[in-house]
Amino acid sequence: MRISRALLLVLIALIAVIGVELRTILGFFDVQLSITSAIVLIVIAIGVLVFWATLPTANGSNEK
């Protein structure tokens, strides 16, 4: 893994909070974002983060 599991959990929580607050910020500019589309964007962002985090590092070390 590229990052520790604890850091991965913190980043997932941060992405979820930013995704929810993004709806609020866009609402101030009269951009309507449904809760379903916000959830889809959050899930995609978390999926990309987990995919990146589980890739092996370039030097091939297997640190834990």
Descriptive notes:
By secondary structure, the chain is an all-alpha fold. The protein is 69% helix and 0% strand. It has helices spanning 5-28, 35-54. Helix 1 runs antiparallel to helix 2 (35-54). The termini are close together.
Can you count the beta strands? 0
Fraction in helix: 55-70%
Strand content: under 5%
Pattern of helices and strands:
HH
Whole-number mean pLDDT: 90
Distance between the termini: 8 Å
Parts with pLDDT < 50 across at least 5 consecutive residues: none
Q: What's the alpha carbon Rg, rounded to whole Å? A: 15 Å
Structural class: mainly alpha
Envelope shape = elongated
Biggest sheet statistics: none
Count of DSSP-assigned helices:
2
